[in-house]
Specification:
InterPro entries: Ankyrin_rpt, Ankyrin_rpt-contain_sf, Beta-lactam_resp_regulator, Peptidase_M56. By secondary structure, the protein is mainly alpha-helical. Among the domains are: 194 residues, no CATH class; 134 residues, Serine Threonine Protein Phosphatase 5, Tetratricopeptide repeat. The chain is 56% helix and 4% strand. The protein is built from 26 helices and 8 strands. A hairpin with a 3-residue loop joins strand 7 and strand 8. Helix 18 runs parallel beside helix 20 and helix 20 runs parallel beside helix 22. It is elongated.
């Protein structure tokens, strides 16, 4: 599932990036160049297709990425007997966003880090659910819209008072239609509301009918249907919504200009727009019907455009086709040259499926060295966390699999790689008191002071778990006795909470600050008082802890050693030591 989440998220960001660039480019170009509405409508339609298809074209396979395979596969490892396998090239970097290719001519490849995806997996699953619900809702709306349009067409009656030479398609009158519309893909018809026929004579209806006929001539019904189908999947995309808005506005204006050219009168068409504005609902009602207006604010712009009919040039089909082709080729060329590529080979190797993850963890728990060697030789990525389990190395440490841990480290397992909710290998060793594995990790470069949110540091975890020998060893190796972590305190705070006087003394000898404040966890003395450890309170005060040092918590709550004292013995001692609040 991690691969699918990574692909989904990367593709989404790629789509938004490409679409945003296209919108900015076209918006600037149309303002400077000011092409006709006809040309603008097809340019924006081309942008719609590019924005939809280009992210797919950016997907590349391992065949196109010669650098991908070596980065994601480990070297062949001999079957282990008693000795650890040879150390192979580390692959931890594959868990991060792929950097630009070093050789000239190679394209920049990228995808989101599976580690980030695993951390955000809960939120991404919610977004996927929202996307699915939105797509389902949109699909239902499309089906209902098609059914409504079919019912309108079947119930409509013919309208004969029209020039068949100008508009050869069937004209129908419907009492249920709320706006003029063109409908039908294979057999298009024009529907007129009964209210329009009753109010307007044939001359005043002519501009309306010609406008809808222009939609049919331009194949707008087909394009509109495609837009609606795409919107089922991309309903959430602001890029698609904005491009669709641009298409709709320019398309309506293009049909205005076509109808006005047939009438040879911009004034007549403008008057028709004003007449219709009194009757129409200003939004499109049906999937396969093109409404006359999109928004009220567009009416003035459309009237101004048709009134300039004489100065407006009607673009030729060849000009429009050439412009769209050039724009498409230029966009594709620029994207191929400059847009980042999505390497499926790297992404696939970086992400463990649920089945692969469960198998890997099962092999580690069973201490099955041959099976693990076979999996590594097949190119399995071992630095990708398995949701709810952590990394392979964390699992090996958790179950005290020393030879497995050596094999994993030799194959490139990152000794400092953390996993949300599972800490990192050294934290796991501290939590489960795996002394030998902790020494192995330390020798292989494990960071003793790494902070993992909601876990703390290895030293904090060891003290909190009551593993004094592990804590002593970490201190001896050089762990920072003052390294704090929000919501997990500091080593001395952990000792104060447990009342572990021996470790507290050891920490103090190494320079632990008895007045060290962690904003989310107060001070060692406040914690010792809160847990009622009188001997710890006495020791901290004797070493210089400030009995009146308070910390603001939970917004406006002042916490001090005295007001957090658990029992009277602690409270009396603090007052005797000079505590006043």
């Amino acid at each position: 599932m991690l691969f699918e989440l990574t692909l989904f998220t990367t593709f989404t960001l790629h789509h938004l990036l490409i679409g945003s660039c296209l919108i900015l480019l076209l918006t600037a170009a149309t303002r400077l160049w000011r092409p006709s509405a006809e040309l603008q409508s097809w340019i924006w339609t081309t942008a719609f297709a590019i924005c939809l298809l280009l992210p797919f074209a950016s997907l590349i396979s391992s065949a196109e990425s010669p650098a991908a395979a070596p980065a994601t596969k480990v070297a062949q490892i001999a079957e282990p007997v008693m000795e650890a396998p040879p150390v192979t090239t580390g692959s931890a970097a594959s868990a991060q966003t792929a950097p630009p290719a070093p050789e000239g001519g190679d394209k920049f490849q990228w995808q989101l880090s599976p580690l980030w995806i695993s951390e955000a997996s809960a939120g991404l699953h919610i977004l996927l659910l929202v996307w699915l619900l939105g797509s389902t809702w949109r699909s239902v709306g499309v089906v209902l819209s098609i059914r409504r349009t079919r019912r309108l067409v079947r119930a409509a009656v013919p309208y004969e008072d029209c020039d068949k030479k100008r508009v050869p398609c069937p004209l129908l009158v419907s009492a249920s239609a709320r706006a003029p519309m063109a409908a039908g893909l294979l057999k298009p018809v024009i529907l007129l509301p009964q209210s329009f026929v009753e109010r307007f004579d044939s001359d005043r209806l002519a501009p309306i009918i010609l406008h809808e006929w222009a939609h049919i001539q331009r194949r707008d019904l087909w394009v509109g249907t495609l837009q609606e189908l795409v919107a089922i999947v991309f309903w959430w995309s602001p890029v698609m919504r904005l491009i669709e808005r641009k298409i709709h506005v320019s398309r309506e204006l293009a049909c205005d200009m076509r109808a006005a050219h047939v009438l040879e009168s911009g004034k007549q068409y403008a008057q028709s727009l004003l007449d219709c504005a009194e009757l129409m609902i200003t939004r499109r009602q049906n999937l396969m019907a093109m409404g006359l207006f999109s928004k009220k604010k567009d009416l003035a712009a459309r009237i101004n455009a048709v009134l300039k009919l004489k100065s407006a040039k009607k673009p030729k089909l060849l000009t429009t086709a050439t412009a769209c082709t050039v724009f498409a080729i230029a966009s594709l060329g620029a994207a191929q040259e400059y847009a980042p590529r999505i390497d499926l080979a790297i992404m696939k190797s970086n992400a463990l499926s649920r089945v692969e993850g469960e198998r890997l963890m099962g092999v580690i728990r069973a201490n099955d060295l041959p099976a693990l060697t076979e999996m590594l030789n097949s190119g399995l990525e071992i630095n990708t966390p398995v949701l709810g389990e952590g990394t392979a190395l964390i699992e090996a440490v958790r179950h005290n699999r020393h030879e497995i841990a050596e094999l994993l480290i030799g194959a490139g397992a990152d000794v400092n790689l953390s996993s949300p909710g599972d800490g990192n290998p050294m934290i796991t060793a501290a939590q489960h008191n795996r002394m030998e594995l902790a020494e192995l990790l330390y020798q292989r470069g494990a960071d003793l002071d790494t902070v993992v949110p909601r876990e703390g540091t290895p030293l904090i975890v060891a003290i909190r778990a009551g593993h004094d020998d592990m804590a002593e060893q970490l201190i001896e190796w050089g762990a920072d006795v003052n390294k704090a972590a929000e919501w997990d305190g500091s080593p001395l705070i952990a000792a104060a909470m447990n009342g572990n006087l021996e470790i507290a003394k050891r920490l103090h000898q190494q320079g632990a600050d008895v007045n060290g404040v962690v904003s989310t966890d107060e001070t060692p003395l406040i914690n010792a008082a809160y847990h009622g450890h009188l001997e710890m309170v006495s020791f901290l005060v004797e070493q210089g802890a400030d009995v009146n040092l308070g910390v603001m918590a939970n917004g406006n709550e002042l916490r001090t050693p005295l007001n957090r004292a658990r029992n009277n013995a602690v409270r009396d001692y603090l007052i005797h030591a000079g505590a006043t609040e």
